[in-house]
Design goal:
12 helices, 17% strand, 275 residues, globular, single chain, 9 strands, TIM Barrel
Length: 275
């Protein structure tokens, strides 16, 4: 699954404590990976806190902790070396490398061309990870990310969007398959905060927006780029993703709760067998 730092609390201490609680719950449910999204630098957990959580997860046999490093953000030159040092001594951790969401970047940061930075970051990480999980975000950098994933041991990390053509293009070249980030809500009736999260995500998906031709985009349309419904319906959605080439599903909870995580795990197990 994926988590945003802003979901975890306000203070550094609160975020670390909440993440440890979630790791413990995720471990008991059977999750393999927790990707920590990047937001603004002031929102993200510090590498030392991420390492502490990773150490805890190792001790309980829990999921791999995978922090995200945005190459265009101003602290990249200190953030990446810091994580590489931690990765050299934490065998269960992985790394996610992205260009960086413009919503969390300054105008100057967002204007940086990410191609060379992505190449250098992935090459440096490959030397340390030694075959462990490395995800490379493809959003708005599809061409260079295909080149990188075709050359070194990283997995293209796509955001679930309209259609499966992009998944299949990436699935054709890398040896390790494709990872997909998908928001989810499993249960009856999507309301309140969960609906807001799903619709907000959908409005940022360029392929969906293009397919709708500029028309209105609400919950009904958002269902096309998310995993929503009963456990059985979610399992069918997972099976379709698997058949299109997805080998790692990273679910983002529209509503964070133990019940939601349990339902996603059940739907994934059922869907993987069908796919």
């Amino acid at each position: 699954m994926a988590l945003k730092p802003s979901m975890l609390g306000l203070s550094r201490k609160a975020k670390r404590r909440e993440l440890i609680r979630i790791v413990e719950s995720a471990s008991s449910i059977g999750f393999d990976v927790i990707v920590l999204d990047s937001e603004r630098a002031v929102d993200d957990l510090q590498p030392v806190d991420v390492e502490a959580v990773a150490k805890f997860s190792e001790e309980i046999g829990g999921p791999a902790i995978v922090p995200t490093v945005p190459v265009r953000r101003g602290d990249f030159n200190s953030l990446l070396p810091g994580y590489l040092e931690i990765l050299s001594r934490r065998d269960s951790m992985g790394l996610c490398i992205v260009a960086g969401n413009p919503a969390y970047l300054s105008a100057d940061e967002a204007s940086v061309r990410p191609g060379r930075l992505l190449w250098s970051a992935c090459m440096a990480a490959e030397k340390v990870l030694n075959g462990r999980l490395m995800l490379l975000g493809t959003e708005n950098v599809e061409k260079v990310s295909r080149q990188i994933c075709g050359s070194i041991s990283c997995i293209p990390f796509l955001l679930l969007d309209e259609g499966v053509e992009e998944v299949r293009r990436f699935a054709d070249s890398p040896k390790r398959g494709v990872a997909v980030y998908a928001p989810f809500y499993i249960g009856d009736g999507v309301v309140g905060e969960a609906e807001r999260v799903l619709v907000s995500y959908a409005r940022r998906r360029k392929r969906l927006v293009e397919a709708l031709g500029g028309g209105s985009l609400g919950l009904r349309e958002a269902l096309r780029v998310s995993i929503v419904g009963s456990v059985g319906e979610a399992a069918e959605r997972v099976a379709c993703l698997v058949s299109s080439g997805v080998r790692l599903l990273i679910g983002f909870p529209a509503k964070l709760s133990t019940t939601q995580l349990e339902r996603l795990a059940l739907a994934t197990r059922k869907g993987w067998g069908k796919g």
